[in-house]
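Sorry to interrupt, but I need a hand with the structure work. Could you write out one complete protein record for me, on any chain you like? Just paste the record in under my message, thanks.

. . .
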Amino acid sequence: MTVSDPWVRATVAQQPATGAFMQLLSVQGARVLEARSPAAAMVEIHEMKMDGGVMQMRPVQALELPAGKTVELKPGGYHVMLMGLKQQLKEGDSVPLSLVVETAGGKRETIELKAPVRALGAVKH
């Protein structure tokens, strides 16, 4: 499994939540079961999609990674939601993230990342 360009959106003082974004590629089929970070009290994988003309954001139980296809976690789509932030995240900081991944064969592994914090208005690299 390859993780490319992980980053976290900066926050303002007292902001309780933010998103983490990246591209994921698994040579064999896999799925992300869980995300964790010591920077937040709760971490979930979320999806955003239109439902009846209204943008909805909701947690997903697992994020499927089809074999050989890049899955992009980005603003307005799938992302990692960091809630109950323990401090303000400023541009230039780094946030530790862990992804628990299960391969098609049922093997689980934890991938450790350090995601740089990008400016509050950032949407791409």
User: Anything to note?
Assistant: The chain has no helices and ten strands. The mean pLDDT is 93. Residues 8 and 117 are 5 Å apart (CA to CA). Strands lie at 2-9, 17-25, 30-36, 40-51, 54-59, 63-65, 70-73, 79-85, 94-103, 108-118.
